[in-house]
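Table S2 (text version). Query chain:
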Amino acid sequence: MKKCYCGFPETYETINIPKNNARCNFCFKQTQKSKIDYSSRLKKLKDFLKKTRNENMLYDCVVPFSGGKDSTFQLYYIVRKLNLKPLVIQFNHGFFRENLKNNNEKTLKKLGVDFLSFTPNWKLVKQLMKVSFERKGDFCWHCHTGVSTLPLTLAKKFNIDLIFYGEEPNEYSDYFKYGDFSSDFLNKGKSLKNYHRITSLGITSKDMEYIIKYENNHNFSERDFWPFMYPKDTTNLLPVYLGSFIKWDTKKNVEIIKKELDWQGDEVEGMPPKLYDYEKIECHMQGMRDYLKYLKRGYSRVTQMTAKDVKENRMSQSQAKKIVAEHEGKVPHSLNIFLDYMGYSRQEFFDKIKNTVVKPWSPNFNSNEYSNKPKDFEKWFRETKTKN
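Corresponding structure-token output:
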């Protein structure tokens, strides 16, 4: 399977590796990013805030917040650097870990913010997971969609126009150029087309309602799907990415939140624990999600992170290859928890995945080499006792 110098394979979504073996389009995007004048962009943002935010507003903005490293830095920056009063909104996907909850409590108290946390119906969530897994090979539709949509819906209910997301989606995909979501500077809302392209796997809440109700014969009504419904009228909503206005440097951001907020990293299945103790620590199903990506496309988050470090000249190509070889592709212990949620046998799971494999990748479905088991594994939610 062909790979770029950075380590991204030809199966990576939206990648283009030239025939002359030049660097891929993601390497080129890194060059683009280095030329952006973030100081002028930040000034433009501050000018806008000065003109439009005032004491008569209940809140200056909405901040979607999981408590992972990106949303924690995002909230820190908005409160401490931009001096805004946010309404902090959390979509609880059902897989939060103990350390994440501890981080959240410290962050919210240290920053002093108003906070709403919403957890959707678990029975509905399981059906959404099953549909998105069987149709797209990705069981996280409810999380992708809820995290992005719920803040928009609640912003409308509280009459708040400005919604701050974190890093731009351009960090890991090439659907758009840097700044596309904020290039007209808050004059356009997040379009429905872009939303479905990068957020909902191309499946609308209406699609989900129909499939679950009529094809899967489950008794859910339209009102059960409201947390996942894109608002009908987004005219007065201004969703933007903070990463459009400041240079988003994940490693430096992590250093800041560890120092200022006592934010603690954690071990994630399949990831080098000391090197990336900050990456996706909020979800106990992250190892399972990375394993799915590996089966489908031949790489996981290990490659994503090492490739990013190679592109940013923080790691050599040989170091990246060694780390990938050591950690990638191993079976996560959370596989058995996932099978329990979905009611699949292991063979049924592999049979469904075979239809989503991206050529020329050909996975080994017979591997029994397990990844690391995080210390809090026994505390992860499961419906029945699984053996590991």
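Notes on Table S2: The longest strand covers residues 86-91. Residues 183-190 have pLDDT under 50 and may be disordered.
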